[in-house]
Amino acid sequence: MIRLLLLGFLLLPASVQGYSLSPQQIAPGVYMFEGATEHFTRDNKGDIANTGFIVGEDGVLVFDTGPSRNYGQSMRLAIATVTDKPVVAVYVSHHHPDHFLGNQAFGDVPIHALEHTIETIRRDGDAVTDSLYRLVGTPMAGTEPVEPGELVTLGRQTVAGRDIELIAAGGHGGDGHADLMLLDHASGVLFAGDLVFHERAPTTPNAELGQWHDALDRIEELDFRVLVPGHGPPARGPEPVQQTRDYLRWLEEHLHEAAAAGLDAAEVMYLDLPDRFQHMGVLEQEYRRSVAHLYPDIERATLRDVREP
Ligand SMILES: [Zn+2]
Question: What is this structure's pTM?
Fold first, then answer.
């Protein structure tokens, strides 16, 4: 029996439930796993967000854990191909399921997050997990939402021998401090979470657009050399910040104009979108979701202004 168990263990494939992640080195000691610039599907196994890790002198720091337990386990196998140092800290950028449902694979490690993230996962974790099971199917097997156990300490600090800065902002994940970023000072790599999208249309289910713009301004002032967006390819400059800002500004203006013209949501959803955004992944899908999220409030405010000039 013991031999059988041992054999089972040795025969475990290097990939887990179809996930076979390979680390992409973006700076000395800093790696990322790049997700598809798509929406959740059975084909992409929910692997649509970027995650990453930093190898310090005394251990490994992980930023975001992906969409499922199996993805998290695949991350750990991939990390072990780079270093035999233990994972000593996990940071979760925000509460959306593509970023935290791999937490289960890091049950032996302190998982840090902002209070907003911890509370929202506690409240909505089961519901968002159910919706991913519906969209992604079997690769999600065994996945359960795990709430981060540690409130993150913000600011500049040394963790596992690495000089890092943990920065709170908001606008994408919700109101207030809902989005966490990690800046690694030695390499200049900034893990920006979903405050920044690149070549992929931003998602807005909890967006506070004013705060999001403030966060983008702050990011541009940070001293980073490599930017890892929450979705899309990494960049060696601020273009992804500019792209995200351009899209969000356009979206807001466009929805206000549509409301002023008296269009209803169904009409707005099928308007033509500007050429300059056509290269972005999932543009039409995300735009339509954004109309559903944002238009009702904009429409109400516009009508109120018309009735009570
Ligand atoms: Zn995301």
Answer: 0.93
Q: Where are the alpha helices (DSSP H) in 81-153?
A: 97-100, 115-136
CA of 262 to the centre of ligand 1 (A): 32
The yes-or-no verdict on residue 236 having pLDDT over 60 is: yes
The CA 182 to ligand 1 mean position distance, Å, reads: 16
Distance (angstroms) between ligand 1 centre and the Cα of 179 equals 11
231 within 8 A of 49, measured Cβ to Cβ: yes
> How many structural domains comprise the chain?
1
Ligand 1 midpoint to CA 77 (Å): 23
> Is the residue at 289 inside a domain?
no
CATH number at residue 205: 3.60.15.10
pLDDT score recorded for residue 12: 44
**What is the 271 CA–ligand 1 centroid distance (Å)?**
25
